[in-house]
Design brief:
- The protein is mostly helical.
- It has a domain of 48 residues.
- 29% of the residues lie in helices and 3% in strands.
- The protein is built from 2 helices and 2 strands, in the order ββαα.
- Strands 1-2 form a two-stranded antiparallel sheet.
- Strand 1 and strand 2 form a beta hairpin.
- The radius of gyration is 33 Å and the shape is elongated.
- The model has no long low-confidence stretch (mean pLDDT 80).
Length: 122
């Protein structure tokens, strides 16, 4: 595999061969170098993955060409001739109901009284 015109597999094979030939390297150092070789192999394979050779979607490809959307030339809004209606605020409402919100950052937020029937016993 090549990254920036460097054959990574050949370079790692060369390092492994030199490590086996050198008998002066301490066993702990040999183990550390072997671990680094494995990490380089894993990371170099991860660099070369894209949507064509893995299960990632094309939208996740790094440096993918992005298409700019062209404006359609249409004006925003409804169709011509449509009468728009907006709910206007009332000066004197029939009832005002205060709703307590749970502002804790949790996955399941609950609004008190929402979705439950009111019973006279409570």
């Amino acid at each position: 595999m090549k990254i920036s015109n460097v054959d990574v597999d050949a370079a790692l094979a060369n390092v492994r061969q030199q490590l086996q030939a050198d008998t002066t390297v301490a066993p702990s150092m040999r183990t550390a170098i072997e671990l680094l070789i494995v990490l380089v192999q894993i990371l170099s394979r991860r660099i070369n993955t894209h949507s064509a050779n893995s299960s990632t979607p094309p939208s996740q490809d790094p440096n993918r060409p992005r298409q700019n959307r062209l404006k359609s030339g249409r004006k925003p809004g409804g169709q011509p001739g449509r009468v728009g209606k907006t709910l206007q605020p009332v000066v004197d409402p029939d009832a005002i109901q205060r709703v307590k919100l749970d502002r804790r950052p949790t996955q399941r937020r609950r609004i008190s009284g929402c979705g439950r029937r009111e019973t006279s016993g409570r």
